[in-house]
Design brief:
This protein is of the alpha/beta class and about 650 residues long. The protein is about 55% helix and about 10% strand. The protein contains 28 helices and 13 strands. Strands 8, 9, 10, 11, 12 and 13 form a six-stranded mixed sheet that branches. The protein starts with 12 loop residues before the first strand and ends in a 5-residue tail after the last helix.
Length: about 650
């Protein structure tokens, strides 16, 4: 798609959403949209052309702080004004019914959609055309003081930023001369902390004979990494600098992109296509809801970096297709197919969803969600969030089951990660084997950010368990976690693990910032939400931590990792509620020495010295080297009062200082 009007639209509109908002018609006639909320309204519709948006959803996004009737009245007035503005000089592209609004597909060329469509393409003309449309941030000049709209806008900006990064990386790989340099510069501007982008720019500059500028770019990269992340450039960046300084011709952009070209390997992610959910309602007009659920699942599932998801346009081609699941999967080149249906039952809505292994035709997972239909907008958000988080987990579980049946000798980088995640990290042998697998993944693919992060997680566990050791593992974990974020600044898990690492250094504000960034990238990742909870426990905000743990289990009803309960119990202890902490610890079927120690302290606090003594003995039997001082050195409580409460509880139970 380009900025030119569609061939079938005599009075075609051209909508610019990137940078400053602008709307034009025909050869250059400007169309004025005076109200900021009208601009925002048009942008919401434009980014989902052909999809019918319920009035309730639009009213909630733009007038959510008003009561329902006032919000609907405001929407009605805004639509009337927007329609008048759009009809100046030509037909309106809007279609309205009593309950839904739609922007007719093909009635308007939209720069943001052109960028999304071109990202990842290998068509040079399409890439160049889309690059010319990247004028700035989405709706840079439009401010609407509504929380729901700002949340929507943040998600759309993240989506566009990722698309622009793919676009300019592709251009920096296939362009030549000054055009290659310009593409690499714009890639660096998008994410200055992404070291692979700096390497692309260094290579592009050196290839045009600008070696001095290439070396200057290295220095700029080195200073930025030192100032913002506290790390030195990676070995491959330093090696590239040395080759350029020696006068060597740098390799192609693809070799410097961090995409494992040297190893000839890519992480092999499970691939998914979400087919349009069937509308089983007697009213065909309710199809907007099933299409909306499908589109939202595709968009939100795309946030999960461990999964490759086919686009909406690709999946929707197979609406009511006579092809079998296996044939569709073969055409789309995916491992899994998601299909589902939506049905109204009186005042309830039922959404059914199935995950199908396309190779075998078997159901890997199926679930049914029944919700009250009183608030369609809230129902759609809630159902989509639950489906996406659960579905992401089921896809990864299915992929792990496939990998576990393969001999280790043929595992590739991504499969090493899956295998390592399958092991019991809370057991020394399992953690050691997982660490080896993650190191192998990094060796196979040095640009694999998640593998670096998972190495960091294991090292943190080993550091915490080594009561008499140095902080060497902690420092290495932080280095690996920082490197992971640098390699993949769009992976929410990398930011969550970095937060988990730096909190043990006592950097509480930084840890909270990283953890919240993880949630911004993927708000449907229940693990990220729980990781923020862990950080908040140590940062002296236990009530907020409990909210996070509760939210994680709302997002995914299946969410119950073994590490959740000790942290949940610790939050109750920080609130001076030892009885609640004990009830939480009881969820664990297997407890380690530290949980036994905490339970001993809680029993001592609640007046049960016999049980406290038994659990203290259990702790010391498992770890004869245990002492309160040694373990508390591994527990980075922000407040002196919290640390003292835990230590005093352990003393009351009779554990040694």
């Amino acid at each position: 798609m380009t900025e030119t009007p569609p061939a079938n639209a005599t009075h075609g509109l051209r909508l610019r959403l990137m940078g400053d908002f602008a709307l034009g018609r025909g050869a250059g006639h400007a169309v004025a949209i005076a109200s900021r909320k009208n601009r925002a309204l048009l942008a919401i519709l434009a980014l989902s052309p052909g999809q019918r948006a319920p009035r309730e959803r639009l009213a909630t996004l733009l007038w959510g702080e008003h009561d329902d009737q006032a919000a609907r009245n405001s929407l009605r007035q805004a639509l009337a004004g927007l329609r008048r503005e759009l009809e100046a000089g030509g037909p309106s592209p809007l279609e309205q019914s009593d309950d839904q609004i739609m922007l007719r597909p093909g009635a308007c060329s939209i720069d943001a959609l052109a960028i999304l469509e071109a990202a990842g393409s290998d068509n040079l003309d399409a890439l160049r055309g889309a690059a010319a449309l990247c004028r700035g941030e989405l709706l840079a000049d439009t401010t609407v003081n509504e929380e729901a709209f700002e949340t929507w806008l943040t998600a759309q900006r993240t989506r566009l930023a990722a698309a622009m990064a793919r676009l300019f990386e592709q251009l920096a790989t296939i362009e030549q001369g000054p055009a290659r340099v310009e593409a690499a510069r714009r890639l660096v501007d998008l994410d200055p902390l992404r070291e692979a982008s700096h390497r692309l720019l260094m290579s592009a500059l050196a290839a045009t004979g600008e070696r001095a500028l290439a070396l200057r770019q290295y220095e700029a990269c080195r200073k930025l990494l030192a100032d913002d992340l506290g790390v030195a450039p990676a070995a491959e960046t330093q090696a590239l600098r040395q080759r350029i300084a020696a006068g060597e011709t740098p390799p192609s952009g693809q070799a410097e992109s961090g995409a494992s070209a040297a190893a000839g390997l890519e992480p092999r992610r499970p691939s998914v296509a979400v087919l349009p959910f069937a509308n089983l309602d007697e009213d065909p007009a309710q199809g907007y809801f099933s299409d909306g659920v499908t589109g939202d699942i595709i968009s939100e599932l795309s946030r999960w970096r461990l999964i490759s998801v086919q686009s909406r346009s690709a999946s929707f081609r197979y609406r009511e297709s006579p092809l079998t699941i296996r044939q569709i999967a073969r055409e789309l080149n995916v491992h899994y197919i998601v299909e589902g249906s939506v049905r109204r039952m009186g005042t309830r809505i039922r959404v059914s969803v199935q995950l199908i292994d396309a190779e075998t035709g078997n159901h890997a997972w199926a679930e049914r969600f029944d919700r009250d239909a009183a608030d369609i907008f809230a129902v759609q958000d809630q159902v989509v969030r639950t489906i996406v988080s659960t579905l992401a987990g089921r896809v990864q579980v299915a992929a792990v089951e496939q990998v576990s049946r393969k001999p280790p000798a043929i595992l590739q980088a991504y499969e090493c990660v899956l295998k390592g995640n399958l092991l019991p990290w809370n057991e020394p042998d399992g953690a050691a084997e997982a660490l080896q697998l993650f190191a192998r993944a990094v060796a196979l693919d040095p640009g694999y950010g998640l593998a670096h992060s998972l190495q960091a997680s294991i090292l943190i566990l080993q550091w915490k368990d080594d009561l008499g050791g140095t902080d060497a593992r902690l420092h290495e974990a932080i280095r690996l976690a920082q490197r992971a974020v640098e390699l993949d600044s769009n992976d929410s898990t990398c930011f969550a693990i970095l937060a988990h690492c730096v909190v043990f250094r006592g950097a509480f504000d930084l840890a909270i910032r990283h953890a919240r960034r993880a949630i911004e990238i993927n708000p449907n990742n229940q693990w990220n939400v729980a990781d923020l909870g862990i950080v908040l426990v140590y940062a002296g905000e236990p009530e907020a931590a409990l909210d996070c743990f509760s939210m994680a289990r709302q997002i995914d009803p299946y969410f119950s990792p073994s590490w959740l309960w000790p942290n949940l119990g610790l939050a109750h202890m920080m609130l001076r509620r030892p009885a609640d902490a004990l009830a939480t610890f009881e969820h664990l079927t297997v407890r380690g020495y530290w949980v036994a120690a905490l339970m001993a302290g809680c029993h001592a606090r609640t007046g049960n010295p016999q049980r406290a003594a038994a659990l203290a003995a259990e702790c010391l039997a498992a770890r004869p080297d245990f002492s309160i001082a040694r373990r508390m050195a591994r527990e980075p409580f922000k407040t002196v009062e919290d640390a003292a409460y835990v230590a005093d509880s352990l003393r009351l139970a009779g554990l040694p200082d």
